[in-house]
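Hi P.,

Sorry for the delay on this. The queue was packed all week, but I finally got your sequence through. Input first:
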Amino acid sequence: MRTGQNPAAGTTVFPVLKHRRQFIAAEDDLLLWQLADSAFPAGGFAHSGGLEAAWQHGQVRNASELAGLLEASLRQLGHASLPFVSAAHDDPAQLAALDQWCDAFITNHVANRASRLQGRAFLSSTEKIFPGRPMNRPSCGHFAPAFGAVARSLGLARSCAGRMFFFQHLRGLIAAAIRLGIVGPMEGQALQHRLSPAAHEILAQCDALPVAEAAQTAPLLEIWQGMQDRLYSRLFQS
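Then the structure:
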């Protein structure tokens, strides 16, 4: 690169810097895509979030009723789980305390068990896939605080972690609906696209909620998920 008064020198430098910024962004995108990939072994596809029990009891019979349940589930995710994700991301050192608080908060035994299984699977997978980031294992291993702490350790911004948390939840429920035969793959993808604005809106509304204001907003979902163990036959654990 040349120096001096020739202005052409500047045109040599800035494309290089611009390319470097794009390369860093591309690396970040690859990490996001890997975490969001359905092949990432996070354990979420073993659970339906109460959808299977609602379907077997005739409460979800078509795509319209499914959309209503999914939006209610997203709203509950924002009020009940996102505060734990955000708090753990803000202060990973509080993961153990947040894990205990989350355990006391999730009183539904099926939902509590599902949260523990998903959280432990997620922690185990990230430890093996992304070595060199030691993290003290919380006693219960609930998914929401574990997700927030891991996202922070991987260098993901809190806003990005929240969007991914919502995306994975919605994607998992859509996948469960397809496996149950409530909708087909194309209809499921169209429904996920249609509900994405609602997910963004709920995320924005709940982004600043502290853990002390966490609340259950969908009691019927809690009832249906609690009935999962009583189903005669089932595909999912919750």
